[in-house]
Design goal:
The protein contains eleven helices and nine strands. It is α/β, with parallel strands linked by helices. The protein is elongated. Helices cover 41% and strands 19% of the residues. Helix 4 (101-111) links the parallel strand 5 and strand 6 (115-121). The strands form two sheets. It has a seven-stranded mixed β-sheet. It has helices at 13-23, 40-48, 59-68, 101-111, 122-129, 139-147, 186-197, 204-215, 219-222, 227-230, 239-251, and strands spanning 9-10, 30-34, 51-56, 74-78, 91-95, 115-121, 148-156, 161-162, 169-176. It binds S-adenosylmethionine. S-adenosylmethionine (SAM) is lined by residues 5-10, 34-37, 40-41, 55-58, 61, 80-82, 95, 97, 100.
């Protein structure tokens, strides 16, 4: 077991079956799994999907998976899911290695898919789902919800895994869709979110002014924002309001 690779293997058969049921797979699906591990989920997915591609970083586990799934509808890619070129897939089902949650989620969202059923650490899942005005509302909430509709499917206790993690987990369903608001420059929006949520106790006026040189915002553009907005803290603004603010100070639209 290599703890730094997030190797907590699912042992609860009921949860395993529910994950596969949530994914609602059929023969026309090509499912991507990140972190095949000992193959417990891989094999279940292979029973219902047309094709399964699993990416596993640990060479020993990947070799074992390759042997185990020889002459089946499973393809094993040994490598780092953050680095490999992703193959074709239309759905994703995975019990993610938690240390790559953020990076792999945005890589997958960038690749596009119908929907994903993913296990995350509960705290991370809460931040992805969080609504404005709550303690968990963060840059992650805004950026994840920009790309996808996110639903909580269930909370999973540590006892569902071996070895047991110290924290609870959660299964989420991510369904990519067009954001219900316009962002004129996504890179700029991301930079702005990083700046304002990095200083979440500060009024927007102060965090934006401090980050202005780094973000390339002419100081004059900040005065385009209404004073009562500038006095607010970032966690009180909806994603749509934050996007509006980004569009105004970026290009005045
Ligand atoms: N699928 C199995 C299950 O459900 O029990 C294992 C899940 S375990 C939480 C995560 C797996 O991801 C481990 O097998 C680990 O070796 C693998 N892993 C860790 N980092 C990875 C990476 N960057 N790319 C691909 N696999 C990775």
């Amino acid at each position: 077991m290599k703890p730094r690779l997030g190797q907590h293997f699912l042992i609860d058969q009921h949860i395993l079956e529910r994950i596969v049921r949530y994914a609602d797979l059929n023969i026309s699906d090509t499912v991507l799994e990140i972190g095949g591990g000992n193959g417990i989920l891989t094999r279940k997915l292979a029973e219902v999907a047309g094709h399964v591609v699993t990416i596993e970083l640990d060479r020993d586990l990947a070799d074992r998976l390759t042997l185990m799934t020889r002459d089946t509808n499973v393809v094993v890619i040994q490598g780092d899911a953050l680095k490999v070129e992703l193959p074709y897939f239309n759905k994703i089902v995975a019990n993610l290695p938690y240390q790559i949650s953020s990076e792999i989620t945005f890589k997958l969202l960038g690749a596009g898919f119908e929907y994903a059923v993913l296990m995350y650490q509960l705290e991370f899942a809460k931040r992805m789902l969080a609504a404005p005005g709550t303690a968990d509302y963060s840059r992650l909430s805004v950026t994840a919800q920009y790309h996808a509709n996110i639903e909580m499917l269930e909370i999973v206790p540590p006892s569902a895994f071996k070895p047991q993690p110290r924290v609870r987990s959660a299964i989420l369903k991510l369904t990519p869709r067009e954001a219900p608001y316009q962002v004129n420059d996504l890179d700029f929006f991301n930079g702005l979110l990083k700046a304002v949520f990095g200083q979440r106790r500060k009024m927007l006026k102060n965090s934006i002014t401090a980050a202005a040189p780094m973000l390339g915002i002419p100081i004059g553009n900040i005065s385009r924002l209404e004073e009562n907005v500038l006095r607010r803290r970032p966690e009180t603004l909806t994603p749509q309001e934050l996007a509006g603010l980004s569009n105004i100070i970026m290009d005045g639209t």
